[in-house]
Amino acid sequence: MSVANDVDIDSLRAQIREFLSSAPRPDGLRNYGPTPTEADIEPGRSWHKYLAEHGYAGLHWPTEHGGADASVLHQAIFAEECARADVPRQLAITAIDLVGPVLIAFGSDHQQQRYLERIRLGDDIWTQLFSEPDAGSDLAAVRTTAVRTQSGWRVNGQKVWSSAAKSAQYGILLARTGAEGHRGLSMFIVPMDAVGVAVRPIKQIDGESKFNEVFLDDVELRPDALIGEAGQGWPIAMMTLGRERLTLGCQAVAMFRLREQMVDAARERGLFDPVLARAMARIWSRMWLLRFTWERAIDAGDLASPAFSVLKLMTSETDRDLADLATEVLGTDACTAPASTGDARIVHAMLVGRAQTILGGTSEIQRNILGERVLGLPKEPR
Ligand SMILES: Cc1cc2nc3c(=O)[nH]c(=O)nc-3n(C[C@H](O)[C@H](O)[C@H](O)COP(=O)(O)OP(=O)(O)OC[C@H]3O[C@@H](n4cnc5c(N)ncnc54)[C@H](O)[C@@H]3O)c2cc1C
To answer: What region holds the Acyl-CoA oxidase/dehydrogenase middle domain (predicted)?
Structure first.
């Protein structure tokens, strides 16, 4: 069965819901979010392959590369239904959502042939090697260098917060090939098993180790490791960051489930006093505002729409505040919640909530973007 673009929304949703509910789930599959842990890779890969075989991997990719050329609405409905079914939407987002579109837009024929189908089928995991200890919000300050040699490029530097780097076969690397500023940046493909690449996992607050430090020490790359032209790294990086926003839709649905768990937890504990009821009503109205803004952005169908900037800010802060409130409802039970229970899921959501307002651009940076680019306020002094 493949997915058509010309069916109405209700039928499309029903078709996807039916597909997901009857799809065989590999043993050990859980909804691990955008990045798998090492234990998630095997079930996540089998699941991804099943999605790919049925036309649901790389929905947004053009048909000539095995995608479905799906509209933004279509992609959003699939993301929402995956969240509702509590399954991941893909093996890992970096390859299919970020690297795929980059290679389709900027990659050479050789790069497209070599990497795209493997990404679509979930054969390879990729990591995004952008952030550095002194270059996160200010990404143009990247100091990792790639110097041209007779046989290609030599890379030296350090990256940090690189999701899935430990299990990745390839990295998409932003490195400096020229003068300071964004015009001196270029984008490369790095085989993660190349000599001189060292990966050190970082232990997260929730106990998992999804992201890593990556050290690049005299790493030799072939000439065809460069994506696009030298000096074209910045527009390529901006394209990947824009795509990250669309994945937020999944969270909007997950929030409604978390809110139900919170209400159940409050009911079980007989906690409905006016103060808690008011706090719950406030977060409930924020969730609906988010939902309506999300629908407006989808209607516009344009990933460059300013509504998506508002969404990143609203989603991450609402998500964090909801999980914080739900944890308050648990009270001291939060410290002893047995694994795999509803209470443990609430605590996990609260811990993961710390990351939401940082990844993909912090809340402060989103507010700067909204102030300057959407509201036309004066630029921050630099
Ligand atoms: C879960 C998670 C996964 C991630 N995965 C990846 C990945 O796979 N690959 C990758 O490359 N990166 C990844 N990141 C890194 C992420 O992109 C950066 O953490 C983020 O861009 C912020 O950069 P920073 O951590 O260096 O903070 P900084 O930029 O140092 O910011 C520190 C604080 O200062 C504030 N600040 C900075 N500049 C301004 C300003 N101009 N105005 C107002 N306030 C400002 C920030 O908002 C923040 O509160 C991930 C992060 C997380 C949390």
So the answer is: 130-219
Hey, whose CA ends up nearest to atom 52 of ligand 1?
Answer: 359
> Ligand 1 mean position to 318 CA, how many Å?
19
**Model confidence at 1: pLDDT above 70:** no
pLDDT of 249 above 70: no
Rounded-to-integer distance, Cα 142 and Cα 135, Å = 5
Asked if residue 334 lies in contact with residue 277, where contact means CB atoms within 8 angstroms, the answer is no
What residue owns the CA closest to ligand 1's atom 23?
136
At 251 the pLDDT is: 66
In the chain, domain spans = 9-120, 126-231, 242-374
| Ligand 1 lining (C-beta closer than 6 Å) | 128, 130-131, 136-137, 161-163, 211, 355, 358-359, 361-362, 364-365, 368, 380
Structure tokens belonging to residue 321? 């505040």
Nearest ligand 1 atom to the CA of 356 is 53
Question: Distance from the CA of 315 to the center of ligand 1, in angstroms?
Answer: 17
Q: Does domain 9-120 have CATH number 2.60.40.10?
A: no
Which protein residue has the closest C-alpha to ligand 1 atom 41? 365
Determine the pLDDT at residue 133. Answer: 97
The fold of the 242-374 domain, in CATH, is: Butyryl-CoA Dehydrogenase, subunit A; domain 3 (1.20.140)
pLDDT above 90: percentage of residues in the chain: 73
pLDDT tens-digit series, residues 283-310: 999 999 988 888 887 777 676 676 677 8
What is the per-residue pLDDT across 170-222, written as a single tens digit (0 to 9) for each? 999 999 999 999 999 999 999 999 999 999 999 999 889 999 999 999 999 99
pLDDT tens across 103-126, in order?
999 999 999 999 999 999 999 999
**To the nearest whole percent, how much of the chain has pLDDT over 70?**
94
Residue 244 is a catalytic residue: yes
